[in-house]
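Dear Dr. V.,

Thank you for agreeing to look over these. As mentioned in my earlier message, I'm a first-year student in the group and I'm still getting used to reading structure tokens, so any feedback on how I've presented them would be very welcome. I ran two proteins. I've put each sequence directly above its structure. The first is here:
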Amino acid sequence: MRYLITFSYDGSNFSGYQKQPNLRTIQGEIEKALNFISGGKKIEIHSSGRTDKKVHAYNQKAHFDLDQNITLYKLKSAINTYTPNDIYIKDIKLVRNDFHARYDVLKKIYIYKINIGDYNPIERNYIFQYNKLLDIDKLKIQLKHLIGTHDYSAFANKEEKKESYIRTIYDINVTKKNNIIYLKFIGNGFLKYQIRNMVGALIECVTKDKNIIDILNSKNRSTYGKIAPPEGLYLYDVKYKKT
């Protein structure tokens, strides 16, 4: 039987989502729990996508196959029992056998949080401590040019080669509350580092009078400076065509 889990995690103390030898990862911890539940049978989970070191998730999704006579409630409880406290399985359900958590994705939603107020040491692992004023009106003007279907190679990981850097961003919403700026990115998928690179480039465009269109059209990562730190990034939700 194939199961789809929805889970959240605090990425602060993980070396990213993807399983890696001798490192603490989200995938590794969940698979260890499932292997124990299955009586030692190796169970592999397939997520909607990877998140980097120190990136968080509200509603990550993954599927796995398990042939065991156990109710959904007991399976959810068992996984939560054997995973650490910085991971939590929020929901589990049966899906069709040909469903795939990555390839059946319709939309992905990410949130990036920026603190433009005083430095907050308590939130340093959860919000980008920019700690300077940022003109939101200018930010809104710049980010509009990132919406649509484009070649986003200017915002890709330089070391990762892709057959295509074309993706579609359906919308980018900006809100501000108590000196925290929230950027919500909705798209059909994102390249590695794409959102963090876009945030870094947007900040540079707002503060140094650059134009995000020029960066986008350049297809060149070297046209701007720093990538935004991972602590402010959250995988907010994943939408599917059918499950």
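The second protein is here, in the same arrangement:
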Amino acid sequence: MQPSILIADDHSMIRKGLKLNIQLSLGYSDIVEVSTCSELMQELVKKKFSHLILDIILSDGSTLEVIPNIRRVYPDLQILVFSMQPPEIYGEALKVYGINYYLSKSVGEEEMLKILEKFLHNETPERNTSIQHHGNPFNTLAPRELEILHYVLKGIGTKDIADTLNLKMNTISTIKTRIFEKTNAGNIKELMELATLYNVNY
């Protein structure tokens, strides 16, 4: 049976390129594109998809905010994260949600197609033993901490983060404290410098 694929990325060129590659090289044509978290959730309600390819940061927020709901409502949906964010940080954290496919946007076309084909055939991904876990201060962050980190790095205050995520302010404060403790960053400037150093985009 042909897979039904949903691509969520806020860059039009990336969506189009991905769609074209899947159509021409892999021969799959049932593909829908969206650019926001809001559109992503709307499409999932409208149609039953077998596979979801999504970036971490979309124009209206981080997909880390919607992944737990997607997992709960659509447990059979196969998910691949296609992102510029470092796989050793985000790829590991997302395994909590049973997401085992993490594709870096920096890989070559041949490698990308090989991984996409395995993903669309529901094959178990090869374990990446080349990922370095030691030394990176962001490796120990849980998905919720990475979600909050995204807002902290953008300079958004505790109250606004709490309002956006519908969480209590003291919950956000506690998570922010944990982020600073785990990364050993003394202040927001140090945290931003670390993020730049380890290619954590915001």
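From my reading of the second output: The beta strands are 5-8, 31-34, 51-54, 57-58, 61-62, 78-83, 101-104. The domain at 143-197 is CATH 1.10.10.10 (Arc Repressor Mutant, subunit A). Does that match how you would interpret it?

Kind regards,
E.
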